[in-house]
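Task: fold both queries, return tokens.
Query 1:
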Amino acid sequence: MEIEVEVYGVVLDPTSNTPVIILKDELSNRVLPIWVGIFEANAIAMKLENVSSPRPMTHDLMASLISQMGGKVEKVVVDDLREGTFYGKIYIRRGDEVLKIDSRPSDAIALAVRVGAPIFVEESVFEEASILPVPESEGEIDLKDWLEKLSPEDFGKYKM
């Protein structure tokens, strides 16, 4: 079963200084950290912060190519976790056909935030890799403060 998530933030893993995308299931309050490369993290963070670049970035190019070829990104799914590596798919609709394209989750998520497509995570991936839920409070959660309270063991060991 696929669970819809939102990109909760992009942060640095405190032990490795590697960028981490934090995906959050709003219904259950579970979070899923996915370690990504610096370029993908930057592409996602720029879009989340509404910062534009003077020239199209790789994920802008992907979105343009898909659109110009008559397609639309229907959704992206983080669908597997094997040997510490996350896997993803980009679902592209073109007419009556849906193409399922293998992708690194970071690229799929960067594309999804660019085109406004929903992001999903398979329940089995959440069961295997989600970490402590974000504490609920009256106000906005301070993501940095919450992450600083996590131990390295809370993050697990996953590969980009």
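Query 1 returned. Query 2:
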Amino acid sequence: MGLLDFFLEEFIENIDWVEKDKDTVLWKFPDKDANIKYGASLTVRESQVALFLDEGQFADTYDAGRFELTTQNMPLLTSLKSWKRGFDSPFKCDVYFLSKKTFTDLKWGTPNPIILRDPEFKQVRVKAFGTYFIKIKDAEKFFTEFAGTKSIVKIQEIENSLRDIVSPKFAEAIAESGVSVLDMVSNYTELGEKVAPFLQKDLDPFGIELVKFQITSTSLPKEVEEFYDKMTNMNMVDNMDKFTKFQTAQAIEKAADNPGGGAGEGLGMGMGFGMAQQMMNQTSNQNQNQNQNQNQNAPAEKSQTKEEIMDTLKQLGELKESGVLTQEEFDTKKKELLSRL
């Protein structure tokens, strides 16, 4: 290495940061103990900020743009070093770049269930998970309170540090909202907006801004979920007759898809009971109608034809053969029907 090469390496003429990954929040310019040349070029890209430190003290801060490092463009550093007008010698200074972009899709969750007072369940344990977005809003405060003398800070380090802060703030916001655990899903957006101010208070000292806070899922203890499912099913069945017809239609559809399976046999038994009950109800209703008509001296309802009676006997015989009706029930019904012939 020649003497000229040695001196060239001692002076830094261009300072910039080309971000090689999306996870770096802070990066120290590698000066290798070299001096910055007077009049060197500084390039700060969009969503970046450059910090100059002189012996640990904050000097000048630069937002996006291209700058020529002279005494005119470095007023604070000039003051710290007591440079006179016309200074043109190399100088030593630490340069840090910070990313001011929004970091998205950071994860949070409750490591253990949170015990909440609930208007319906009194006390219940809830676990929750979600995402949040942050960005650096005060570069100097972030450097002082979080980064320190580190040469690089990744977003994963910030995410890990905030994990223990988010969970308690979520619990505080949920408790204050008074929302029932059964209504949480329909209030995710509102609850996220309530959590954000609680969490922002803890981020302010680090110069971090909470851009967005989202709740993506909540889970309840198994016994609470089972009770909730039962309540939902009961609320759905407001008409037992409609519910029975709906169940029968579903069973028929399943049996059609699997005619040779055991489900078809079960369906046959279930439909048999339903048919038997329906025929008995129809007979009972007919008898009641006939008695009412006779009492009112009105013409009796038209009786069943011979063909209808024989068809009913055939159906009852099939139900007896399948075990749905007992021999005694079949004989009683058979005697009643034959008396009408």
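Both queries returned. Flag for query 2: The longest strand covers residues 122-136.
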